[in-house]
Amino acid sequence: MSGRVVIVGAGQAGLQVASSLRQDGFAGSITLIGDEPGLPYQRPPLSKAYMKDGDAARLALKPDSFFARADITYRPMTRVSAIDRLAAEVVLDGGERLGFDHLVLATGARTIRPPLDGLDLPGVHELRGLADARRLRDAMAQARRAVVIGGGFIGLEFASVARAAGLEVTVLEAADRLMGRSITGAMSARFLAAHVADGVDVRLGARALAILGTDRVEGVALDSGVVPADLVLVATGVRPNSELAEAAGLAVANGIVVDADLRTEDPRIFAIGDCANFPSGQERIRLESVQAATDHARHVARAIMGAPAAPYAALPWFWSDQGALKLQIAGLSTGADEIIAQSDEDGAVHSVFAFRDDRLIAVETVNRPGVHIAARKLLGAGVAVTPAALIAAGHDLKALLPPA
Ligand SMILES: Cc1cc2nc3c(=O)[nH]c(=O)nc-3n(C[C@H](O)[C@H](O)[C@H](O)COP(=O)(O)OP(=O)(O)OC[C@H]3O[C@@H](n4cnc5c(N)ncnc54)[C@H](O)[C@@H]3O)c2cc1C
Prior knowledge:
Elements: E1 4-8, H1 12-23, E2 29-33, H2 49-53, H3 65-69, E3 72-75, E4 80-84, E5 89-92, E6 97-99, E7 102-105, E8 109-111, E9 124-125, H4 130-142, E10 145-149, H5 153-164, E11 168-173, H6 185-197, E12 201-204, E13 210-213, E14 217-222, E15 225-228, E16 231-234, E17 238-240, H7 243-247, E18 256-257, E19 269-271, E20 276-280, E21 283-285, H8 290-304, E22 317-322, E23 325-331, E24 338-343, E25 349-356, E26 359-366, H9 369-380, H10 387-392
Parallel strand pairs: 1-2, 1-7, 2-3, 7-19, 9-16, 10-11, 10-16, 11-12, 18-20
Antiparallel strand pairs: 4-5, 5-6, 8-17, 13-14, 14-15, 20-21, 22-23, 23-26, 24-25, 25-26
Helix pairs in contact: 1-8
The chain binds flavin-adenine dinucleotide.
């Protein structure tokens, strides 16, 4: 298979599609365009290992030598400003045009900036890219009191690291539980207890009204008063980078709308990773995970290679490291109508099995990698597990796996 593939966005998904194409034997040209400097890198460690050790060298997804070896033209610090679908070209900032036979949009997402006064004060941070992480890490070394706005994965991962580094940390979450978009209530409660035990001041139902300060940040205003801060992390979620697609007349609705093959309505143009809104069963979803970025990319590489189309159906999975706890999630618990939770002797929940219509749809675990892997195998194989079957198996997912 030959032709010209242009990939916009050199993150987890963009790099993977380039690399998978070569692995699958694609003989045409591949151009990977990204607007950030340096080599494509992993984001998950930015709020975990990198925030602790500051070792940026370990973040690169591939060494420099990979690009020449795989004959991939990598253009960092280059922004695509438009897609000319009529000419089948992308337009770069500065006007240069590159023709394509297949175009992959892997433009990721950016941090939501909530409408709060004081967002631009020195000392107020966001965390999406390496440049943000560098600034935040340097600021953490000088700070005494951090306020995190948003009790999602990234905010809580940072809160753990900052607390372990000796800062006073307050987490403000507007909803009534932590990580409420992504995990069950039982698991939220487990993490709330752990953060509180570590000394983090977690405030639920706490909406930030404004960020206060004159020359630099001094605090965050709530209904109930002011929380003092010399560092604020705004971690209230991300928004997909879909403007390029929208300006090119492609459908956009919470991300770039694609079909079960991850194609937009223009058959030459795919969208993958954080920016893609794709079908999942009867619903449409957008995921922000390494798993989705990687599996989407592999699927699209096969589609470009002309492999027979099977709808994209990879099982979502995710992880988050917060203090001593590693949370792993297989499947999506959205819409769960029954939960079975298992706890340690001290009452701390370590596994949650979520069911919908009498069928297991997701498994959340804490520091139980074996259970997580078994859950991925079971859910990935499409095995139907009822609550009764799980109990009969003594909650042992391995016992429910089909024979190899
Ligand atoms: C701090 C942090 C921690 C995370 N932790 C986890 C975790 O523990 N587990 C997990 O599964 N996921 C985690 N994630 C999410 C995961 O990193 C993302 O889901 C993944 O990076 C998505 O890959 P992507 O290629 O779709 O987007 P990105 O990695 O965001 O890459 C998109 C790239 O495209 C570039 N771009 C956008 N528009 C243009 C343009 N017009 N021209 C050129 N370039 C452009 C962007 O600048 C960016 O470099 C984390 C994310 C962050 C920020």
